[in-house]
Amino acid sequence: MSAVDARLAELGLTLPAVVPPLAAYQPAVRSGVYVYTSGQLPMVDGKLPVTGKVGAEVTAEEAKELARTCALNALAAVKSVTGDLDRVARVVKVVGFVASASDFTGQPGVINGASELLAEVLGDKGVHARSAVGVAVLPLDSPVEVEIQVELTQA
Known about the structure:
Elements: H1 3-10, E1 28-31, E2 34-37, H2 60-82, E3 88-99, H3 107-122, E4 129-135, E5 144-152
Parallel strand pairs: 3-4
Antiparallel strand pairs: 1-2, 2-5, 3-5
Helix pairs in contact: 2-3
């Protein structure tokens, strides 16, 4: 068992199956020592657990948990092209999108769910640069979407 797999188990987490693309793209692609994921929705068993705007139908706390799920789905996408999350040298960048009610301004707190999960799972390698953006709507009326970019170790 890899160190990252052991850490996931210690946290009581399991990497899900990679979420199949909703359109014409790949869940993740590798270019040299970098892996770029497509935006990951908080899909669980092929479905969104909730839909709607954060600050209206979805609370900030619920959205933060959904962002954690997005990050877990992103790690699954990374593993699908690397074969082993121990190859991750560091998470370089996280971009989080929050479908927001017009008066909601807590996007950074929501995307902290993804950032915190990556740090819990990968330790210092999970600390990253980040953007948290409020948007009008996301695919399938998802409240949150997260993409990550990771650098791999030389092998």
